[in-house]
Amino acid sequence: MPAAPATADGDRAIAAGPTLGDDCWFLSGPTASGKTARALAMARELGAEIVSVDSMAVYRGLDVGTAKPTAEQRRHVPHHLVDVAEPAETYSVARWLADAAAAVADCRHRGRRILFVGGTPLYLRALRDGLAALPAADPVVRATLAADAERLGAHAFHARLVALDPESAARIHPHDVKRVIRALEVAQSTGRPLSAAFAPRPHPVFATNFLVLDVPREVLRDRIDRRVERMFAEGLIDETAAALAAPGGIGPTARQAAGYAETIDLLEGRIDLATAIHRTQVRTRQLAKRQLTWLRSFRHARWITA
Fold first, then answer.
1. Global confidence as pTM
2. What is the 3-state secondary structure (H, E, C) of the chain?
3. Measured between alpha carbons, how far is 259 from 278 in angstroms, rounded to an integer?
4. What CATH number should be reported for the domain whose range is 139-197?
5. In percent, how much of the chain has pLDDT > 70?
6. For residue 224, how many other CB atoms are within 10 A of its CB?
7. What does the alpha-carbon distance between residue 126 and residue 16 come to, in Å, rounded to a whole number?
8. Confidence of residue 106 (pLDDT cuts 50, 70, 90)
9. Closest Cα to residue 174, out of 93, 184, 120, 197?
10. pLDDT tens-digit profile of 193-207?
11. Domain boundaries, the chain
12. In the CATH hierarchy, which top-level class contains the domain 24-133+199-214+298-305?
C-alpha cells in the first residue's frame, strides 16, 4: 500500500492504517526504558519483524539523538519505518499510518508476525483508535492564521491553541507553526478541537497483546541522564551540524526530538555544553512523564519489569 497521496495544500489524505490481528503485538514504555533490547528478544521469540512507533526514528541521519537501533541490531531483526524521511520533512501521523499499513502487509506476505515497538503517544493512539477524517484546508482561514502567527510570534500564537485545544497544544511544539495553524483551523471550522478527531474505537487486540515496560522512577531518571550524557559524548553535536548543513536542514518536526534544539542553541553560541546537556535531560524526563501518563490509559496493558 503506497503512502497517502499529498493534497494540493500539502496535507496528506487521511490513511486507513494497518489492519490489526492476532499476529500483531505491541511493546511500549517511556524513553530509556530498554525497549530496543526487549523488542529484539521478543521479536526472535515471536518470529516477528519490528514496526517502529517512534516519530523521530523516521528521520535519516538523526541516529545518536533518537537512540535508534543500530545497523547490527537491524540486521538481526528487520525493522520498518526507520530512516524513511529526511530531517527537513514534516512526517505526519497520516503518513505513518499509511507506511505502517504497507509494512504490515509486507510482513504478512512473508509469513512473519508484527511487533510494533515505540512510545510515541500520537502514533499509538492513531493505531489503537483510528484516525477520523478532518475538514479540508480553508485557504482564507489559513492565510488569516498565518498572518496572526507572524504578528504575534510563535509562543503567543501557540498560547491561542492552548486556550482552545490544550491536548493538541501539549503535543505540538510552539515553533511548529504549520501544525499550530492546522489545529486552530480545525477548531475554528468545526467548533471542536483537533484532539477530538481521534474517536476512541480501540481494537480488541490491544486488550491481549499490549505490553508496557515498567521502570522505577529513580532508575528511569538515572538512565535518562546517563543516556543524554552519552549522546553528547558520542557525536550528537557533529550529527546535528551535519543535518543542519544538508539541504533543508532540520525541519520543525524533527527539532522536537530532545537534544536537537538544545544542540542548535549550543552550535549558535546561545548556551554552553553543560546547559545543553541539562536542558536535554530535563526535556527527556518531561517526555517520559507524558508517555507514562498516556500509557496508563491502556486499561488492559500488561506492565512488565524492564
1. 0.78
2. CCCCCECCCCCECCCCCCCCCCCEEEEECCCCCCHHHHHHHHHHHHCEEEEECCCCCCECCCCCCCCCCCHHHHHHCCEECCCCECCCCCCCHHHHHHHHHHHHHHHHHCCCEEEEECCCHHHHHHHHHCCCCCCCCCHHHHHHHHHHHHHHCHHHHHHHHHHHCHHHHHHCCCCCHHHHHHHHHHHHHHCCCHHHHCCCCCCHHHHCCEEEEECCHHHHHHHHHHHHHHHHHCCHHHHHHHHHHCCCCCCCCHHHCCCHHHHHHHHCCCCCHHHHHHHHHHHHHHHHHHHHHHHCCCCCCEEEEC
3. 10
4. 1.10.20.140
5. 91
6. 24
7. 10
8. very high
9. 184
10. 887 765 556 688 998
11. 24-133+199-214+298-305, 139-197, 217-295
12. alpha beta
Cα–Cα distance between 213 and 302 in angstroms, integer? Answer: 9
At residue 188 the predicted structure's pLDDT band, cuts being 50, 70 and 90, is confident
Judged against a pLDDT cut of 60, whether residue 4 lies above it is answered with: no
191-205, 229-243, 282-296: range with lowest mean pLDDT: 191-205
pLDDT tens profile 25-45: 999 999 999 999 999 999 999
Q: Which CATH number fits domain 217-295: 2.30.140.10, 1.10.150.110, 1.10.287.890, 3.40.50.300?
A: 1.10.287.890
Q: Are 141 and 189 within 8 A, CB to CB?
A: yes
Q: How far apart are CA 277 and CA 24, in angstroms?
A: 37
